[in-house]
Amino acid sequence: MSHYLLLRNIRVENANAISGITYGFPSPTHFCGYTHALSRKLQKEYGDQACLGGVGIICHQHQVQAHRIGYETVFSLTRNPVTHEGKTAPFNEEGRMHLTVSLLIECKFKVTDLALGEGTQEQRQKVFINNVRTKAEGQRLAGGTITQLGSVKVLDLEDNSDAGEREFRRWMLRSIPGFVLKDRQDALTAHHRERLAENSATELLDSWLDFVALDSEAVVADDFEGTPIVGETPANWRIKPKPEQGYFVPLSVGFEAISELYEAGSVLRARDNQVPFRFVESAYSIGQWVGPHRIKKPDDMLWHYHYEEDEQGGHYLCRGKAPQEAPEAIELTDNNFYDDDY
Fold first, then answer.
1. CA angle, 251 as apex, 94 and 5 as ends, to 5°?
2. Distances in Å between the alpha carbon of 157 and those of 86, 110, 188?
3. Tens digit of each residue's pLDDT (9 = 90 or more) over 48-76
4. What phi and psi values does residue 314 have, to the nearest 5 degrees?
5. pLDDT, tens digit, 9 for 90 and up, residues 96-128
6. Which of 297, 320, 279, 250 is nearest to 31 (CA)?
7. Torsions phi, psi of 274, nearest 5?
8. Taking the model in full, what pTM does it have?
9. How far apart are CA 133 and CA 54, in angstroms?
């Protein structure tokens, strides 16, 4: 039996719309961080057993706070009050957005096993739901303010059974209209291997751009006969197709180490001198928006924290599958996975 929390129709205002070099939707790291913060609050009240795991992201509506100036789109900034000297306050460049999402959160416990006081099973579960709702509404999500939370549901699904699959799909259909953000690192890895087979000098950044960049290519006109000559042969321009069909988007999925691990307190002006310190940079991958009706089981949509250390450094990532279930195709064991320029 698997247990989940479903937080439906969370309305967030002024959330962060910029993640690394990408913009348009918060990074999965924001949602994993939100879940982790909620888990720590529940563990503080109910004990260590009240631990939350991965999180699934369903977006119902989003609106980036931006406007057009001619042919350019720029973020809309706030006009801050004047300073105490009566001068115009400086502008802080930031990207903001409003969004409505639903979150499917994995529970590593059964709700009725917690210390929820006296009463029937339904009454005890209602106490827990009200407590989760209060804590969830009081947190920030992706730096934004939660202004509304539709409902909180507890889902108990049977593992590897038709009944559990039907129950899960029923709730997914209720999430329409909306789209689920899936991790597609497997598609990026497979495409990169194909490009390496064609050209050993291909970098992973090139394969990544094949999914997220809009490229055009020239195709010799159908009515042309003879040998094509560069610069002279008539051609038609077309949009270069993506490696796979689907709504692919670039994602900031965590951080990769760019320095050794320093002992606690050895680096000046660190945020916390009680823990080891390391310099990192943003790590990128790709995701895909898919309809909720295409999700067969919860593991297909959950994002998890993952950490691995090798001789090249450490990887602090959010992945679409639990580490023990991750297929070999998305295992990252070399430092060449991310371009050094980023």
1. 95
2. 60, 11, 32
3. 888 999 999 999 999 988 888 888 888 88
4. -110, 150
5. 899 999 999 999 988 877 767 777 878 888 888
6. 320
7. -95, -5
8. 0.84
9. 18
